[in-house]
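Entry:
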Amino acid sequence: MVITKFKILIILLSVTLTGYTQSLNELYKKSIEAYKNKNFEDFEKLNLEALKLHPSQPTILFNLAASYALNHKNEQAFELLSTLLSWNAELKLEDESFKSLLVEKRFANDLKKKASFFSTQKESSAILFEISNKYHVEDIEMIGDIAYVTDVRNGFVIKYNLKTKKSEELLSVAGSAFAIIKGVDKNSIWVSSSMFPNYSKYDKEQNNKSFVYKVNTQNGSILTKIEIPEEAVIGSMVLAKNNKIYATNSISPKIFVIDTNKEIIENSFEIKEAFNLQGITLDHTHQHILIADYIKGILKLNLTDFSDRMWYESKSYLLKGIDGLNYIDDNTLIAIQNNSNPKKVIQLTTDANKVTKVEILDNALPFKGEPTNGKFYKEKGYLYISNSQWPFYDKTNTPLVEQWEPQKIRIFNPF
């Protein structure tokens, strides 16, 4: 019954919260004690307090919804469960805590409809091209009819010609190749690498040692090599009009600023309220960057004043587990949500600091790989890596190559 359910959630929380503040665990334990003592008002208050520290923790959100139901706030319980279903369409609601909610047919029926909607397969894109399943691709950049993709397993940058439909290995770097962007001119690209456990020649002593390279697209020669002076995994980069690269670090919530003219790291700054930074994108003015936080959601930051920033609000859709993020226009973003169940690509309509609409573009596509990153081009559309090999490693990071899929790059065109 309920107590059994909470025993399961306690196990999940102990795993999920590894590395977070002890105070969050303390609040969680107090909330469970309040629940067991049938002090449902405190149960609600403690979950609300915990969410200030970790705003999208699924167990705490679930428990808060339970507290609403137990305190006869069925409308609030319904709204929160609807939001949770947007992230996990297989959420189970058999808990006794929701008995009073589910006896009302309008709530029970609407929740079933939402679960069905968010779990239904949707395919709005088409396959643009494929890369061999011997690679584990992560990011993509297009220059003309040539696509460049990065490889996590062996650090390759692979060059694919859309006209000839042939690929070649342009170069390999020391570590997993992650983010890729084009340079100021069409003959150069920038690529990030990190000594990552999934890399075939992983060196534990060099764990998370990272570099950013400027590469000649014609012959694969390395023109510039910039060392990151701390542990980092540069998962996403953008090049602004000021010829500066802004790069996210997923090891700690920092942004690196690289001056490509001087070929140095100019600055790094921490976003203290963030958790795990992933995709980064520029608005059309190049005055703001937008960043996906894998835990918290989406942040907009002013490049002339790093203290000027805001988080997008979304009450009806949980913006958790976003990897790739791309600006389309002032009111439109595309996000790749690969920590959701099922995994999906979504289009966000925004107004000021609010997400006013979420449209699912691709959802629950029929392969087991993980969507990661994409790029938007006005003349081509939006293309993205749809089934990266991340799920196909064992606990020792050894690749389960018999399960590896051909790497499909998909496109929404016209967008």
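Residues 2-16 form the longest helix (15 residues).
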